[in-house]
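Hi P.,

Sorry for the delay on this. The queue was packed all week, but I finally got your sequence through. Input first:
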Amino acid sequence: MNEALPLRTPGAGIPQVQPVVSFDFFMPHDHGVIAASVACALDTYHAALGPDSGRLTTTWDADGEPSPLSNADWEDLRERLAAAPPDDFLDDLPQDSLWFNILTRRRFDANVRLTGDESDSSGYEFRYRSRLPWRNPNARMLSVLNAQVPLRFLEEQGPTRLRDLAINLAGNLPFSAAHVGLSFVSSRGFRRALPLLKEDLFRHPGWAVPSAGASMDMGPQVDGIHWLNFLGPPLLETVGGIQALRAHLRHPETTVQELTGGRALIRLGSAPLAGDTKRGETLPAYRELARFLEPWLLPSPPFTPFEGYTPEEMRHWWRRFLEPPPAPISDPRDG
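Then the structure:
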């Protein structure tokens, strides 16, 4: 397993920075359509944690207020994830009603967030937000499900177990795009710590940044290149289907797996890699997929530029798999 992990973990020693493996699913559907599948994904995630399932101790309400997670809260979660009537549209509420104002101000409908308590940096988290249920929804608006496990999960259980968990989480989720890869926990103060990560983020292109692609208004696009890349309808058909993927993706570390429901999984190697441009490890399989998917990649980061980064630096980081990699150089830290 050692060769599958980064030689140097970005942010080591910075309290606000914790590396994780992140699972992100983007679904062009309202809560009423996907609720049952989200409930199954939550049960799958919780069961996969095994003894660590007890590390989920906190639930967060829609206003971002935490409270202890109890057995009663689990029952409440399952009730909230019960499928709503498919014709329960926001259009049908009086526009001057309290609930209409609350929902439109929050910009999401259903909400689930489970973590450890604020003193527990375990790296486990499950989060789901559904788009607002308009009768004629904005085609760019998505429901987003995110789950996280710490790097320890990968080290102890291996990449095959990680891949199987990703496929099980995908289950019947009707995603247009999804991905799994190396990322960070978005803890309090994380944004202020980002300037300290600048060199490592450019050096290790396999790392992603939380919220960089977890945008609810991403539309039928892809938010970057990761270890596991899922495509579903209508995006898979738009890029040419399974046949186009297999015809264009020739790197020996790339595999294309057909899934049920008109979906596909593109795996870039046997395990997630961070890469190291100073050592010439530029992740060519990732670059090949980026070139193929470029017409469908978000052209710029869907977030406010990081503190301490210029717009040009942000653009370069966002396009790190599309622009020529830097030439490898010696680094005294590698001695």
